[in-house]
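Handout for the seminar on molecular recognition.
Each group receives one record of this type.
Step one: identify the two inputs.
Step two: read the structure output and locate the region that could contact D-glutamic acid.
Step three: write two sentences on what you found, then compare them with the reference statements printed after the record.
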Amino acid sequence: MRPPMSDNSTAKIGVFDSGVGGLSVLRAIWQTIPELPVIYLADQAHVPYGPRPLEEVRSFAEAISRYLISQGCRIIVVACNAASAAALHHLRARFPAIPIVGMEPAVKPAAEHTQSGVVGVLATPATFQGALYASVVERFASNVRLIPHTCPGLVQQIEAGELDAPETYRILSEALEPMLLARIDTIVLGCTHYPFVIPAIQQIAGPSVRVIDPAPAVAKQTRRQLIAYGLFDEDNPPPLSSNPDRHTRFITTGNVEKFKAALKQLLNIDAAPTQLRWSQNLLE
Ligand code: DGL
């Protein structure tokens, strides 16, 4: 059932990730729904999420969602595969009035696209452990060979802005070379940080290997959910902004200066992020 809109104010979109990875999703949201204000929260006090127990990631995700809702967000985009794996069902049960959009590895389009029948999946350990991954594999990959890899250290390289560094290439080569020998023709990016190293991936894998970034599909799903919940009226949208970054508020639980530099490097924007501190598992 569609919950009624409680007021006529423009709905705010809450987006979060362990760090800068969700910016790859934010970029797609700006393109797909440029009219709506966004709060982006990077939980850099806890990055990386991938090696942590799912219960711990779930408690971060719940506290962040609670905070974003308290700031007026009417929809939450979990722009993080690890947090989606750990917490998506939990968040939907905890906040039943709020649409929660999550990420799952794009195994379905990969299985539809592959000619060689062999697909590489790059994601963090939390994502491979979660029931969501097991479910997409079971539903969509019965006729496909999937080769998973966790790329240890890659999230930290991207957080540090080391997109072209030799260590980044070493991590990626170690993951991709066995996959290429096994004749993959498609790579699924199951971590939202990884789209920022697509040029490096493509350089190692060659132009004939297709790399699937799920961000545009997630942004479209966000738009559909906003419409379904009566939070966005396509026929009467708020005024279109030519600079959606101006109505996006950036928050980090980590270092503000580093996050500001990442926003410049990854999105080419000059933003003024603010810092939020964790206090006894709560954000304030
Ligand atoms: N960007 C995240 C994901 O999509 C989390 C990476 C991490 O913090 O380990 O999984």
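Reference statements: Residues 1-8 have pLDDT under 50 and may be disordered. Residues 8-103+216-283 form a domain with the Rossmann fold fold (CATH 3.40.50.1860).
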